[in-house]
Write a structure and sequence with these properties.
Distance between the termini of chain B: 22 Å
Strand content of chain B: 5-15%
Oligomer: heterodimer
Order of helices and strands of chain B: HEHEHEHEHEHEEHEHHEHH
Radius of gyration of chain A: 21 Å
Strand content of chain A: 15-25%
Mean pLDDT of chain A: 94
Shape of chain A: globular
Number of strands of chain B: 9
Distance between the termini of chain A: 20 Å
Structural class of chain B: alpha/beta
């Protein structure tokens, strides 16, 4: 990589919600930072440059926006490297248009101390494809008992805390965690699920579960813990983020809590905007995720929540699992689906094609707001900002083909879907990390041998 | 009509004509059991494996006898579901069994949908002998067969299914089969055991047995799983029996010609009084007898779909 090379992205539709920008312009990048954005009005355009190593990208007809950010990703390293690694997850991320991902701490062992956070950052630097921001565990070993060393982890680079995979059941522990995290002003992210109410469930509790004879996961499991947390968050004033919201009740609670001034944010996954419990069909385990697919009413409420801003962030909950594991029976198979390489067109279908959001609205929720939430210092094309940029062809029609994924896992219910819209280039700190035509760039020179 | 299915996974997926074909075929097989030589050559040369991941003596014996009366070879494969966690997946187990040249897999498993998974991974006939709390189609068929034989019809009958309906695969198979043949089905039990969602599947849901007991042509009592005591779905066996048990007292308010059924084994004195189980309106033993003919019919029809082999 030639660090100081110039990059010029010409004549794209530059959409930067952080500065209310939406116009045809040239974007110039120098030394990995945004140098200038020059509107193309037929006369003035980016100055011609003859610097050696300069790269020009013609973005005519394409959207140029701050790099997409997914703050809910499972990378499985350490512990389950056959399903995903920090390197393969990064490759999948840039292929999907993401320049930054935040990874969840439910690895084996859990990311619950300073050394683990540093390990993640080092592996990410080795692959050198995108920014990987570690999220630390709230409690040691994600056991829900003792607080993990949040201070140490923040110092090492953790951007938030969560026990994702399960919720913090003990109310006192959660209260203490909220009080403690406030010192560092990082958000606590909760996987809202009351374990007793969810006990044994594997799909949404309701008509389809009754018909299929599968134990149900009640929407109440999500809503009861969320309601409790909102009270706790209100009392401490800590930033609280509800992960992968899936029920109409949860959307309503967050909307009301916001109105009351509680510092709460929320996220939603594409599958909860596009699929319902009825899609499970004949026990297809690619439709098994947690929270589970809900009803039409819940999908509608989640879409509305995104449209009216109640739900700030769009995430994938990228959860890779091997084919053998997913080949178990529905009750035994693990929860989760991959998402990094399919998220963009699915959000386009759920939100833009339905006219619930326009492009600036979508990019705000896929880049600006997630960056703001975790204080990542990304999500903008302001001059001087780190040049994380995604170039999107909004018109490209393609078919989702899991066999072509760069992720190590293939577990998706969206295989074969005819979709529209795709990242053509993903640029991280001024360097083209992914190009639809030439593929993924090779990573940084390794620190050691992998 | 020609039987189109290689597998019998649910009654939900069958049409009324298909259900009637099974019942009629069973009727034709029924007299085999009364002959001196209790065998027909319909499945000669075929191999049937009983793949039971859950304990069951009665159902397995019934399938074994049914297969033997059709002249099939029968193998028992008893496995604990926990072997899955030891590394061999259900899929691998099935592929191994298939590699031994099996024609019919009769499977019982504690997970709903396990038979669907097997069917996707084998060319054998797959007959669901109970999957989790989903369906138990041959039990549903033998119940319907028994009712049809006793009452002469199904259309227009009022059938009650009483007990832990939510966890019952028998109840689901009965519901789908009975509704398709024109019966009216009422699920009776405590609110913790009979979820309201069943109403959307076409059942009537009632939580007060006494208010409706006089209406029914058939009362099918489900077995109370003793391990549910303590899971707070009901406070005590005594209270359950008082509210939902088929006691002698309650039977006095039932119709004179009501048919009393139970998939067995019975907890005498809990869901049903011993006198009622042994009484004149009980067809519980006929159910067992009819199970043989019904299972013969199912195996016969499904293997027809395999073609010559």
């Amino acid at each position: 990589m030639v660090k100081n090379s110039n990059l010029i992205i010409r004549s794209g539709r530059v959409v930067d919600p952080s500065r209310n920008l939406d116009q045809i312009a040239d974007v110039t990048v120098v030394d990995g930072r945004i140098e200038s954005i020059n509107p193309v009005d037929g006369r003035a355009s980016a100055p011609e440059s003859s610097a050696p190593g300069r790269i020009e990208i013609d973005a005519t007809g394409l959207i140029v926006c701050p790099g997409l950010i997914d703050i809910h990703v499972h990378l499985r390293e350490p512990g389950n490297e056959d399903e995903e690694t920090i390197g393969s997850g990064s490759a999948a991320a840039v292929a999907g248009g993401f320049t930054s991902i935040a990874c969840m701490p439910n690895t084996q062992p859990a990311i619950d101390n300073e050394a683990m956070v540093e390990f993640v950052l080092r592996q990410a630097a080795r692959s050198g494809l995108c920014n990987v921001f570690p999220i630390g565990a709230i409690t040691k070993g994600r056991q829900g008992l003792e607080l993990a060393e949040m201070g140490h982890m923040v110092r090492a680079g953790a951007v938030a805390f969560t026990d994702d995979g399960c919720g913090v059941a003990n109310s006192n522990t959660m209260l203490r965690a909220l009080q403690y995290a406030k010192m560092f002003d990082v958000p606590l992210i909760q996987h809202c699920e009351d374990a007793d109410l969810a006990s044994g469930g594997c799909m949404n509790a309701g008509l389809t579960a009754t018909r299929l004879g599968l134990p149900g996961l009640s929407p109440l499991a999500e809503e009861v813990m969320l309601q409790r947390d909102l009270l706790l968050a209100e009392s401490t004033g800590t930033a609280y983020h509800a992960a992968h919201i899936s029920t109409a009740g949860a959307v309503r609670m967050i909307r009301e809590a916001r109105r009351r001034g509680i510092r709460v944010t929320a996220e939603v996954c594409p599958h909860h905007l596009l699929l319902t419990e009825r899609d499970i069909g004949d026990y297809d385990t690619n439709f098994k995720m947690n929270p589970p697919l809900r009803t039409e009413r819940d999908v509608e409420a989640c879409r509305e929540g995104v449209a009216d801003g109640t739900i700030d962030c769009l995430v994938t909950d990228h959860a890779p699992h091997g084919a053998d594991e997913k080949a178990f029976d529905f009750q035994t198979a693990p929860f989760g689906i991959v998402g990094l390489e399919t998220a963009l067109p699915l959000f386009i279908r759920a939100l833009i094609e339905t006219r619930l959001l326009d492009w600036p609205g979508l990019i705000e929720r896929l880049s600006c707001l997630p960056s703001k939430l975790l204080k990542l210092g990304r999500g903008t094309l302001a001059p001087g900002a780190i040049a994380d940029i995604t170039i999107i062809d909004p018109a490209e029609e393609w078919v989702i083909s899991p066999s072509e994924f760069l992720s190590r896992s293939r577990n998706t219910p969206f295989g074969g879907w005819q979709v529209r819209g795709r990242a053509t280039q993903t640029i991280v700190a001024g360097r083209v990390s992914f190009d639809r035509h030439s593929g993924v760039a090779s990573g940084e020179p390794s620190v050691g041998v992998r | 009509m020609v039987w189109p299915h290689r597998n019998l996974l649910t009654l939900e997926e069958l049409t009324s004509d298909e259900i009637n074909l099974i019942l009629d075929t069973a009727a034709a097989f029924e007299d085999v059991s009364t002959r001196s030589v209790k065998k027909v050559p319909a499945l000669r040369g075929r191999v049937v494996v009983n793949l039971f991941f859950e304990d069951s003596t009665r159902t397995r014996t019934s399938f074994t006898l049914a297969a033997q009366r059709l002249s099939a070879d029968v193998i028992d494969f008893t496995a604990k579901a926990s072997s899955l966690s030891k590394g061999e997946s259900l899929r691998d187990t099935v592929r191994n069994i298939e590699a031994m040249g099996i024609d019919v897999i009769v499977c019982r498993h504690s997970s709903s949908g396990a038979n669907h998974l097997i069917a996707k991974n084998t060319k054998c006939c797959v007959i669901n002998a109970g999957d989790g709390r989903h369906e138990h189609p041959t039990q549903g068929l033998l119940d319907i067969y028994t009712i049809r034989k006793a009452k002469g019809r199904i259309d227009g009958l009022k059938v009650a299914i009483v007990g832990d309906v939510g966890n019952s695969r028998v109840a689901r198979s009965n519901l789908h089969g009975l509704l398709k043949l024109g019966a009216e089905v009422t699920f009776v039990g405590p609110t913790t055991m009979v979820p309201g969602a069943f109403a959307k599947m076409g059942a009537r849901v009632v939580h007060d047995f006494d208010s409706v007991i006089g209406e029914f042509d058939v009362i099918n009592m489900l077995r109370i799983q003793m391990e549910r005591l303590g899971s707070n779905v009901f406070p005590s066996l005594g209270e359950y029996t008082r509210l939902f048990g088929l006691t002698n007292e309650r039977m006095k308010r039932a119709r004179q010609d009501v048919l009393v059924m139970h998939p067995g084994p019975i907890n005498r004195g809990v869901e049903m009084a011993g006198d009622v189980a042994d009484g004149g309106r009980s067809v519980i033993l006929e159910q067992v007898t009819n199970g043989l003919a019904v299972r013969m019919a199912v195996m016969f029809l499904c293997t027809q779909a395999l073609g010559a082999g």
